């Protein structure tokens, strides 16, 4: 099973870059085999549709505009995207994930499993660092994603010795 972990965001607007910071966190702290691809999607949006279509399983990580408190993490699955039931707005840097997945479905190339981990940002201020609140969320989300990958047979080891 080929898995893509796709982090989206703009690194110049603090918490808006959470998805990219998440990919960098995984790269620093874990070693993945070739069956897991980590991708810093930045603000590319629809330009990377082919990456999603080549994977069997996709984890998307991004900030969202949803009811709740800064730092709250929500999980949504492919069926919710395709039915347009997401009560959230993805960050403004890209075309909506619903459109990307609908395009992939029309092409007959939608991944079997797609999960979005969306986090409510605390700050969009100019800056390349996450707010302390969102910085503190990286390790917990990483443990959750890595745990799920290990449970389905991916070999992942700690990069920290």
Write structural notes for this entry:
The chain has 161 residues and is of the alpha/beta class. It has a single domain, classed as HybD-like (Rossmann fold). Helix content is 31%, strand content 26%. The protein is built from six helices and eight strands; from the N terminus they run E-H-E-E-H-E-E-H-E-H-E-H-H-E. The protein has helices spanning 18-29, 49-53, 78-82, 97-106, 132-135, 138-151; strands at residues 3-8, 30-32, 36-42, 57-65, 73-77, 89-90, 113-119, 156-158. Strands 1, 3, 4, 5, 6 and 7 form a six-stranded mixed β-sheet that branches. A two-stranded antiparallel sheet has the order 2-8. Helix 1 crosses helix 6. The two termini are 28 Å apart. 34% of the residues are buried. The model has no long low-confidence stretch (mean pLDDT 85).
List the helices and strands and how they pair.
Elements: E1 3-8, H1 18-29, E2 30-32, E3 36-42, H2 49-53, E4 57-65, E5 73-77, H3 78-82, E6 89-90, H4 97-106, E7 113-119, H5 132-135, H6 138-151, E8 156-158
Parallel strand pairs: 1-3, 1-4, 4-7
Antiparallel strand pairs: 2-8, 4-6, 5-7
């Amino acid at each position: 099973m080929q898995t893509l972990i796709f982090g989206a965001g703009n690194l110049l607007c603090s918490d808006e870059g959470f998805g990219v910071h998440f990919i960098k966190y995984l790269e620093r702290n874990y070693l993945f085999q070739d069956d897991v691809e980590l991708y810093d999607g930045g603000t590319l949006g629809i330009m990377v549709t082919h990456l999603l279509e080549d994977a069997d399983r996709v984890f998307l990580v991004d900030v969202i505009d949803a009811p709740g408190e800064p730092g709250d993490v929500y999980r949504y699955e492919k069926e919710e995207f395709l039915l347009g039931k997401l009560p959230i707005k993805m960050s403004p840097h890209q075309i909506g994930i619903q459109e990307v997945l609908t395009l992939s479905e029309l092409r007959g190339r939608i991944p079997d499993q797609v999960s979005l981990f969306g986090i409510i940002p605390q700050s969009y201020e100019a800056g390349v660092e996450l707010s302390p609140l969102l910085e503190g969320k990286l390790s917990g989300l990483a443990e959750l994603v890595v745990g799920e990958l290990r449970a389905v047979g991916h070999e992942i080891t700690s990069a920290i010795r």
